[in-house]
Amino acid sequence: MLKEYQTVTEIYGPLMLVEKIDGAKYGHIVDIELGDGSKRHGQILQVENDKVLLQVFEGTNGIDVDTSTVRFLAKPLELAVSPDILGRVFTGLGVPKDGGPDIIPDKRLDINGNPINPFARDYPNEFIQTGISTIDGLNPIVRGQKLPIFSGAGLPHDEITAQIARQATVLGKGEEFAVVFAAMGITFEAAQFFIDDLTETGAIERAVMFMNLANDPAIERIATPRFALTAAEYLAFELDKHVLVILNDMTNYCEALREISAARKEVPGRRGYPGYLYTDLAMIYERAGRIKGKKGSITMIPVLTMPEDDKTHPVPDLTGYITEGQIILSRSLHRQSVAPPVDALPSLSRLKDKGIGAGKTREDHADLYNQLYAAYARGKEAQELATIMGEAALSNEDKKYMTFANEFEARYVTQDYYENRSIETTLDLGWELLSMFDNVELKRIDIELIDKYMPRFRKEQKNEEAAKEE
Amino acid sequence: MSETIQGKVVKVAGPVVVAEGMTGARMYDVVRVSKLNLIGEIVELHGDLASIQVYEETVGIGPGEPVVNTGVPLSVELGPGLIESIYDGIQRPLESLYAVEGAFMKRGTDLPGLNREKKWHFKPTVEAGIKVNPGDIIGEVDESSLVMHKIMIPAGVSGTLQKITEGDYTVVQDIATVVAEDGTETQLQMMQKWPVRNARNVQRRLAPNEILRTGQRVIDTFFPISKGGTACVPGPFGTGKTVVQHQLAKWVDAEVVIYVGCGERGNEMTDVLTEFPELKDPRTGEPLMKRSVLIANTSNMPVAAREASVYTGITIAEYFRDMGMSVALMADSTSRWAEAMREISTRLEEMPAEEGYPAYLGARIASFYERAGRVQCQGGPEREGALSIIGAVSPPGGDLSDSVVQATLHVTKVFWSLQGRLAYQRHFPAIDWLTSYSFYKQYLKNCFDDADQGLEMDNLVAEAMALLEKESNLLEIVRLVGAEALSPQDRFALETSRTIREDYLHQNAFHKVDTYTSMLKQYEMLKTILFFHKQALKAIEAGVDINDISKLKVREDIARAKYIPQDEMEKIPQIRETIEKQIKELQAAGV
User: Is B237 near chain A, with CB under 8 Å?
Assistant: First the structure.
């Protein structure tokens, strides 16, 4: 028994006000039928007595006050799910877009989901090998983690996410990830690049796509990540799959949220974004994780472009406060043709310590990345000093560290987008680079580990030197 | 009486619901909204209209649904069973919720904060027949291997203790009877309730003059916090606020630790939950969980409950303080609490002050931190309790001019400034030694059994700080004219301050030995570093080349002193002997 009303009184921005409504509920959805018979979708943002404020996902273009009919569906936004969603492409509102048949639903799920009880969470501690040294070696990801990529306009975040989606495996298990991809306001090109890449490797069979491209309605983007995560939760916690969710690009999502907030004349927070942006983003990001007693997991890689590469912009800033670390891309490295241009120093994976070490990756992993970081940080300082005062003014020690930083960028950071380095290769590369220092300088590494691993690399170096002398 | 007040929803906007027909309701009364029984709290009254902040998701609620007033303010249940619990922001036990509703949180589930079935052995510590007043301890319960739970007379009850019996009781069974002067009898149970927004009563407040040991070198040595003190830890993301908070929760020498995860990551709470039962208290060898209470209202849980979570936490903390214990409360992060206030305020359409925060932000923050302190507890026997608060703040973009940081700094006495620059170098804890401060420094010397040692420590700290200060000035000169321009003494000052930074201030939270350093070991370590500095300066005066000193083998021993376990501490003074020997050898070789 659905109720229909023709009592639209106001339309402004993406919002509509409908009056004389009986029994409307906050958060429920509506269908809007225009005078010409076309249909739009909306959601209730506020109810006050018999007045209802709606947001229209497809925008309010062409909607009029007189002939539009609003039908209250008395349910929240839902996604129809069944195992058949794998391999399918949907719009940002969860409607099949690939010309395939409708999903015959096993069940319909509220896209807002419910928060995971913190007590029910299982701690993420299974190392994921991505084959990228700067991630595996320095900022390892674990299953159930949410690790965003902070990028900028013109930086190759698409290549990196595609590489992760292609190469990610849990060490020693060889299990592959199901991929859920949510496109929010990205270009057709960027989306197609990703689809092509998945198609080539056959991973498309294990993927679910939600596509809201740049020319699709902006307000729809508010629902897109929620659809994607509802699909992910279904795959992970009901079908026992390990799911990798890629949300691209969260900055566009936040802009859509800001548009609604501005239309509602809410008191804005920083840069016009609503004060509840943190909570809203948390509702999305916190859906990643593992649950006790369930086999599947959700690992999330949101991508966002920092306006003017500014990390303190509200979107990256609030994201960084919620996610478990961040991978930051550097424009300066990109200009120097270091690819992937991962800026190792400000990048961070908060959960790394639980996913590495003996039995997981290798016993020397933690000490090794600490030492690499310390040495690289010092080398970076020397690089800066050299640009101010010239290389000649550096002390011998500083010069050594600068050489290290250069080598590190050229050999450790740089790798091909199709090069899949095993964790051993990455770790050994670290030792090799550190072999230019004396043991005394390697303060962050346990003596025993140095004794165990370093000789191999020192010997090679000595042999090379010996060969040269001869 | 108030059960009869029943209104009707007229407006729903996110977490705020407005109801009409609420005549007779009082501010901050708890109400139940709709047939789903969602828990809410009245935050505004206009005639018979009440604005309610709802602690649960409001999707599906609409006008016309019932609102029932319970007539009582938001309260927590206090009694045996708190320790080792994990609660959400309004004291619902998450473990029981998980058992009832599964991994995902549903709405309207109502579970009591304290287990009603579990029996505790109550042992009276007083005899029947005596006069009792609020706060008097009348018995105890062995709650965990680390906490002896005292049962106190609740507020508002006084008279003659007529009956008190030892035995096994649940928290709601009668354990004693008190007869007032006018003859009215009150049955006492182990459980009592307290409204979270009111501070619990104390006899008298005292100056916080004893250091709260944390085992973290940069904190204990340079910026200590006292028992009953307050500290503010602001820093941009990725600088290790949470690790600092976790380290403190683990190693602080308080008898009870309350950890409030306010609007933070779910996995972090899981980390605490998996780690605390395994970690051992360095003093007693018991699992740390045996002295902890966790409040977890993660960022995706309802925002109004987040606002309440810090109050729930502090009320439980005050309750343990009233037993005469030293309690430490970590709140991570108070910015999320402030944001929850802002969100509710926006929905109430209040006029905003700075950055959209409500005008009462500063006052709320101040009155929260003011609930910390060292006190003489109410009631007998005479006892002292202390409650320390360590609040993390997450300023947007790490900008310290943020309203929450500024309002917090107004009232806290310790400031640990976390710097992104240090974090990028993986210098943890990333507490900046030049901008941080502590008002409790003068009590550091009392930490040592040996008074001379205390005085010496004071001098060592001053000396080390002077070196660090000097370093920052010297580094500027180096940047301008290069290191060659410095005198050998100054160049060595740079070396030593680097040692202080890398080998003393830097502390690895994940290393089994380095994670905790006792006060005595801190003293020995710092003494050794500065001893080397003095010996080296003497040698330089005598003409020894600074590069030779820098290359001495003993420096490696100094650097690795932090990894010397507590029970092999005698190895540190031995390093000083080695220093003397090696420098003498150098000098001899030079001559």
Answer: yes
Tens-place pLDDT, residues B480-509: 887 778 899 999 999 999 999 999 999 988
Q: Name the CA dihedral angle for A157, A158, A161, A167, rounded to a multiple of 10 degrees.
A: -120
Does residue B341 have a pLDDT over 80?
A: yes
Kindly determine whether residue A385 and residue B355, on different chains, have CB atoms separated by under 8 Å: no
Six-digit token string for A470: 């001869």
Query: Does the CB of B59 have a partner CB in chain A at under 8 Å?
Result: yes
CA of A223 vs chain B CAs: smallest distance (Å) = 15
The whole-angstrom separation of Cα B396 and Cα B404 is 10
Collect all residues of chain A within an 8 Å Cβ-Cβ radius of residue B301.
115
Q: How far apart are CA B543 and CA B537, in angstroms?
A: 10
Distance from the Cα of B262 to chain A's closest Cα (Å) equals: 12
Question: Domain-by-domain residue ranges, chain A?
Answer: 3-75, 79-354, 365-469
Over range B461-470, report the average pLDDT. 96
What local confidence, expressed as pLDDT, does residue B1 receive? 40
Half-sphere exposure of A438 (CA within 13 A, CB side): 6
A453: which 2 tokens? 């691993």
Name the residue among B233, B224, B249 with its Cα closest to residue B431: B233
CB spacing of A118 vs B261 below 8 angstroms: yes
Which amino acid appears at position B31 of this protein?
V
Examine the pLDDT at A177 and tell me if it is beyond 60. Answer: yes
Q: Where are the alpha helices (DSSP H) in A187-272?
A: 188-201, 224-237, 250-263
Q: Determine which helix (DSSP H) or strand (DSSP E) holds A132, and give its type and residue range.
A: none
Q: What angle do CA B485, B490, B494 make, to 5 degrees?
A: 105
What would the mean pLDDT of B527-535 be, rounded to a whole number? 96
> How sure is the predictor about B227, in pLDDT bands with cuts at 50, 70 and 90?
very high
* Interface pTM, i.e. ipTM: 0.85
Residue of B nearest to A144 (CA): B267
Task: Write out pLDDT tens, residues A340-387.
Answer: 999 999 999 988 888 898 888 999 999 999 899 989 999 998 998 888
Tokens 């294990």 correspond to A206
CA distance A458 to chain B (A): 20
Inter-chain CB proximity A270 and B396 less than 8 Å: yes
If you classify domain B116-190 with CATH, what class do you get? mainly beta
B253 touches chain A (CB under 8 A): no
Q: Pick from B63, B269, B482: which is nearest to A393 by CB? A: B482
Q: Domain A79-354 falls in which CATH fold?
A: Rossmann fold (3.40.50)
CATH architecture of B204-435: 3-Layer(aba) Sandwich (3.40)
Q: What average pLDDT does range B346-360 have in this prediction? A: 86
User: B-chain residues within 8 Å CB-CB of A377?
Assistant: 424-426
On whether any CB of chain A is under 8 Å from the CB of B503, the answer is yes
Report the alpha-carbon angle A178-A183-A187, nearest 5. Answer: 130
Nearest residue on chain B to A292, alpha-carbon basis:
B103
Does the distance separating the beta carbons of B105 and A117 come in below 8 Å? yes
* Contact at CB, B59 and A112, closer than 8 angstroms: yes
DSSP states of A313-357 as a string?
SHHHHHHHHHSSEEEEB-HHHHHTT-SS-B-TTT-EETTHHHH-S
Architecture of the domain made up of B5-73: Beta Barrel (2.40)
- For A3-75, CATH gives 2.40.30.20
Cross-chain residue pair A269–B356, CB shorter than 8 Å: yes
Of A25, A321, A350, the CB nearest to B62: A25
Contact state of A443 with B13 under an 8 Å Cβ cutoff = no
Q: Is the pLDDT of residue B7 over 80?
A: yes
Closest residue, chain A, to B476 (C-alpha): A385
Q: Do B356 and A268 touch (CB under 8 A)?
A: yes
Listed by start position, the domains of chain B span: 5-73, 116-190, 204-435, 451-590
Q: What is the CATH number of domain B451-590?
A: 1.10.1140.10
